[in-house]
Amino acid sequence: MIKRLIDKVFGRKGADRPVVIAAPEHGIRRDQISHGARRVCEQLQENGFAAYVVGGAVRDLLLGVEPKDFDVATSATPEQVHRVLRRSRLIGRRFKLVHALFGNEVVEVSTFRAGAPESGDTESPAQVVDEHGRVLRDNVYGTRQEDAARRDFTINSLYYDPVAETVLDYHKGLADLRKKTVRMIGDPARRYREDPVRMLRAVRFAARPGFHIAPKTAAPIAELASLLGNVPAARLFEEMLKLLLSGNAAACVRQLRAQGLHHGLLPMLDVILEQPMGERFVTLALEQTDRRVRDDKPISPAFLFAALLWHQVLAAWKQAMERGERSIPALHEAMDLVLDQQTDQLAIPRRFTVTMKEIWGLQPRLDANTGRRPHLLLEHPRFRAAFDFLALRAESGEAPTELVDWWARFQVAGATEREHMLLPAAAGSSPRRRRRRRPSGDRGAPEGGADVAERSTSDHDHKAD
Ligand code: ATP
Ligand code: MG
Fold this sequence. Notes:
Layout: H1 2-10, E1 19-21, H2 23-26, H3 35-46, E2 51-54, H4 56-63, E3 71-74, H5 78-84, E4 88-91, E5 97-102, E6 105-111, E7 127-129, E8 135-138, H6 144-150, E9 158-161, E10 166-169, H7 173-178, E11 181-182, H8 188-194, H9 197-206, E12 212-213, H10 215-218, H11 221-224, H12 233-244, H13 249-258, H14 269-274, H15 276-294, H16 301-322, H17 327-345, H18 350-367, H19 373-379, H20 383-395, H21 401-412, H22 415-422, H23 431-437, H24 450-464
Parallel strand pairs: 3-6, 11-12
Antiparallel strand pairs: 1-10, 2-3, 2-9, 4-5, 5-6, 7-8, 9-10
Helix pairs in contact: 9-12, 9-13, 15-16, 16-17, 16-18, 17-18, 18-20, 20-21
The structure holds adenosine-5'-triphosphate and magnesium ion (MG).
């Protein structure tokens, strides 16, 4: 009965019994599982429940990648989990989950759940969908096989039992993992309708080196891309952040464009990427982020979003100036405009937008390396981020390289050298002399002027040599 129902819903046969893969074949060692996740599985099993490490951790271990975190799925209800695991708390509104605490580690424990019913089926009261088929709430507990079927991709639907040391595979996930294929479980179009965020997840996993989306899984995306518009802006931001911090951000953004998914996220991306300088700037920012993620260095999401939206700000800034606004008020107007437009699509939290504005707002000030202001600027809490941003602008050809060099020297210089650097005669080859000839209203104006273009090209050529 259940099998027939699953076959009907997911159009797949043979998915009700998993293939059991033993240790020699899967190669996962028990000691690769975090202490917390192992203890959760052991304790739940000792109390008669089924419990497995699931999802991304199993996928990553099979790929030889160190998992970010370990999630556990179990047959125990959240209340039962809470009773078995002393240091745990119940959380979640959309889904009830348990967070189990082991020292510093938090293990997320979720109860096996069933997927959304096929449209037309009688809706159970715990499942609510919107008019596009998007699941708004599903708290229906299910069997292990139902839990496997409601997961998104075959490679994310593998269950590792750290006690028996076996991997359970319901949807040929291991084979897909070896083929580096992202394949949706069930009917892709229906599953995207249930949760359009799965389109972004497909892109994120497919951006890993060597991975691709299975043709049938990719096919409906272009047509359904607009459904991302119905997803709450805060959730989109979270997913976008995961994508950008995945270590494959440059590839992800290329994939987003290829799948036509970026419109609902960063609406100007196409326009920006069509301009050589904009494309170079965004690409450099993403590649730099990817390098930092791979080197385990911290990433500032504010810096990254500031970079992604910078050329949009530049365009709006230029427009405001053309309307006769003075440079600095025009910049502030441009920043607000761009952030307002962005909020409708993908809500960047305020804690980030505040920093983004500081980074943007400091750019014209970095251009003004005269008087006492450079000293003051060094004290600014966002100086370092703003300086790094300037360096990125210079690398993309938008700002003069000498300005970056000047600030780099000024930061480390002693008091006497600093005074010397600030003397008009000391300007020498610094961009200051050139700027002083320009009317003050032009300071920090957006690019587009002939002299900036000329300079950028030569800077760029120089760097490339
Ligand atoms: P990451 O490495 O980014 O954590 P992940 O696959 O572990 O990747 P999570 O968001 O942690 O992603 O989700 C854990 C698991 O839950 C997934 O592997 C997948 O099985 C399931 N899952 C997550 N999001 C969805 C979704 N939108 N639809 C269906 N299943 C999902
Ligand atoms: Mg995960």
